[in-house]
Specification:
By secondary structure, the protein is mainly α. The chain has seven helices and no strands. It has helices at residues 2-10, 20-23, 37-41, 60-69, 84-98, 102-111, 125-138. The longest helix has 15 residues, at 84-98.
């Protein structure tokens, strides 16, 4: 998600100094109203993981609820904590700034230009085995 964000920053469509709540108004609740894009990208926003499992992350209503309801637990920039809410917020920013689903944007602007059409965010389970095999053949995966 960070790479996709940097593309938008490079194109002038996103600024690291922007408050996330200016882009996603519902994010600006529970002590998150002053957090900037930079702070979310650096994982120093001060909020914990949302209380729901990863397999629900792509449910738009649950993601929106997590973005809205999760509260800042620490002061901004005091502690580093990679969180699903930060990832969900960046995905939502990408969608609002591009008008595209974040997975489509990553596929079109990152995977395809790198010559890795099988590389996707949220790859459907039925494609996982063949995609891993293809990436291994190309040397794109170590292990």
């Amino acid at each position: 998600m960070s790479a996709a964000s940097w593309i938008l920053i490079g194109e002038g469509k996103l600024k690291t100094s922007e408050r996330v709540a200016e882009i996603i108004p519902e994010f600006g609740t529970n002590g998150k109203d002053t957090m900037t894009v930079e702070q979310v990208l650096l994982h120093v926003g001060g909020f914990p993981n949302a209380p729901y499992p990863q397999d629900e992350w792509l449910d738009k209503s649950k993601a929106a609820r997590a973005i809205r309801e999760v509260a800042a637990r620490w002061p901004v920039a005091v502690s580093s904590n990679t969180t699903d809410v930060g990832i969900l917020a960046i995905a939502e920013i990408i969608e609002r700034r591009t008008g595209k689903d974040f997975r489509q944007f990553v596929h079109e602007r990152i995977s395809m230009p790198l010559g890795l059409p099988e590389l996707r965010v949220g790859l459907p389970r039925e494609y996982q085995k063949s995609t891993c095999a293809a990436l291994l053949r190309r040397g794109a995966v170590v292990g």
